[in-house]
Amino acid sequence: MKVTIVYPDYYLTGYIKGEPQGRIYLGVAYLSAALKEAGHHMTLIHLVEPTSRDELLTRVKEESPQLLGFSCTTPMFPKVREMARWVKEELDLPIVVGGAHATLDPQGCLEEQNIDFVCVGEGEGVIVELADALEGKGSVENILSLWGKWKGKKFINPVRPLVEDLDSLPLPDRSIFDISLMAPDQKERITVMASRGCPYRCHYCSNHVQRSRYPNREKYVRFRSVDHLLGEIEGLAEKLENIHHVRFDDDILTLRREWFEEFVKEYPRRIKLPFICNSRVDLLNEDKIRKLKEAGCITICMGIESGNPYLRREILGRRMSDEKIIEAFHLCRKYGIGTVSLNMMGFPKETFSMVLDTVKLNAKAKPGLTQITVFYPFPGTILYDICREERLLPEEDLDTLFTRESSLNLKEIRPDQLQLISEYLIPFAYTYHRIFDLPGPLDGWAEKLFDWFLSTDKISLERKQKVARKLLLKTPWDWYMSTKY
Ligand code: B12
Ligand code: SF4
């Protein structure tokens, strides 16, 4: 059977036309490998910019699939819903939706008139069995992890157990991606995953909801063998040209001590490329950071999320101290590893003074690159429920994720404050960094004055932006340009 999957890979709002910004997504590459191994065909419609109804239908007709899939994250769901409608209005095609959003909110997906099937959780087995069933081999109604409404009948099946041995999966099929649609940094990297799952329960993250879906949830965190992983990278490094580094997309590469020790020993022996990975500050110490450096790590991305200890612990469920955060970033700097700090703002119960704590903690940690996004609640998460209890959720669709606005009815933070920090976090962090270096009591006075300037509604956003642009010109390049991620 011929299956086509649509992967929407662009920002819903604020999209700027120009060089393609497509990114590799291994989820669909794993689906393709599984389908091909089972004797089916799969093609990808990789949407790197918004598409019109006609463009989409032309593409789908060109591919002429017998089953159409959409891979969907929460922010993309409104768009996927619309595209499914366009297809159904014109073509008689079964439509299946999978991906993070389908796993978080299968009920919501199934309620959509134009979606026939929803894949809850990992999809390799599901997509193969669905393709088989639609070809007449078996019944769609008995496929584990599949929810659907088919031929007038609605069905909800239990979720199948997680694939425990990741080495048993066929290697992701990267041939479905068109290199010409990729962002420049994607062309010079090999993207791989060593693991699936994360054991933590950060209240805003989808992991605790995803884990809860599986019958064998105690096996949620799984690692491939180091040998299997490095074999895949070796094969790709041989085949691909102009590769600069390897990018591990895992939530936390440094999670398991034994695996980590084997990895840092074997990686430099077998792979001659530097690598970038994600970790958590409380899973790093000097010994690990030194070993990562020796193994070839050039950048580590770590969440700070909030610089306010109360908010971090109670609202975000992240138990880590300011000191630990600062130490991890400083140790990376000491060993010459670049860092990226990931931050959010606009949480329930957050005040603007707490947002400034985030700016200040970044000033102290001094990451190579500092990123901030406005918090967006994902269905089913602990923080989504807190937002509901606090009556912060609006009535209509939450589709402000890619804007600098909040989708919540925030009471304590003004929209202009969110916009200012989103735009100028780095020069502001640098300014606080300079202020903290002043001799006392000058540092305290300067800090209060700058806090007031950023907070006050007596000065317009435009005037603040003007000052921020001047501060930006004074910010050394290594505060925002030095790190690849
Ligand atoms: C690589 C990655 C990206 C890539 C690729 C995007 C993508 N579609 O995943 C990029 C860099 C573009 C990206 C961007 C963003 N990401 Co991201 N990203 C990831 C990451 C780290 C790995 C994804 C992956 O390859 N997983 C491994 C595969 C095997 O698992 P999987 O994705 O779940 O896929 C399986 C099933 O879901 C299913 N499946 C998937 N698609 C389909 C389709 C069909 C038809 C079927 C049947 C099954 C199916 O089968 C797959 C194989 O088993 C995940 C975290 C994670 N560890 O999964 C976050 C994650 C997907 N990202 C997340 C977020 C929040 C974002 C951003 C919003 C971040 C931001 N603030 O900008 C953007 C959104 C981009 C967008 N266009 O919507 C969230 C999504 C939460 C949600 N509710 O949707 C995740 C889950 C992180 C988290 N823990 O919260 N991301
Ligand atoms: S540590 Fe990261 S990936 Fe794991 S639950 Fe927290 S935010 Fe999600």
Overview of this protein structure:
It is built from 18 helices and 15 strands. The model has no long low-confidence stretch (mean pLDDT 94). The protein has a 7-stranded mixed beta sheet, with helices on both faces. A 6-stranded parallel beta sheet has the order 8-11-12-13-14-15. It has a two-stranded antiparallel sheet with strand order 9-10. The chain is 41% helix and 15% strand. The longest helix has 22 residues, at 415-436. The relative contact order is 0.09. The structure holds cobalamin and iron/sulfur cluster (SF4).
Q: Tell me the total number of β-strands.
A: 15
Bound small-molecule species: cobalamin, iron/sulfur cluster
Distance between the termini: 38 Å
CATH class of the largest domain: Alpha Beta
Q: What profile does the largest beta sheet have? A: 7 strands, mixed
Arithmetic mean of pLDDT: 94
CATH superfamily of the largest domain: tm_1862 like domain
Principal-axis shape: globular
CATH architectural name of the largest domain: Alpha-Beta Horseshoe
Structural class: alpha/beta
Could you give the order of strands across the largest sheet?
Answer: 2-1-3-4-5-6-7
Structural domain tally:
2
What fold name goes in the CATH topology slot of the largest domain?
A: pyruvate-formate lyase- activating enzyme
- The percent range for helix content is 40-55%
| Annotation field: number of helices | 18
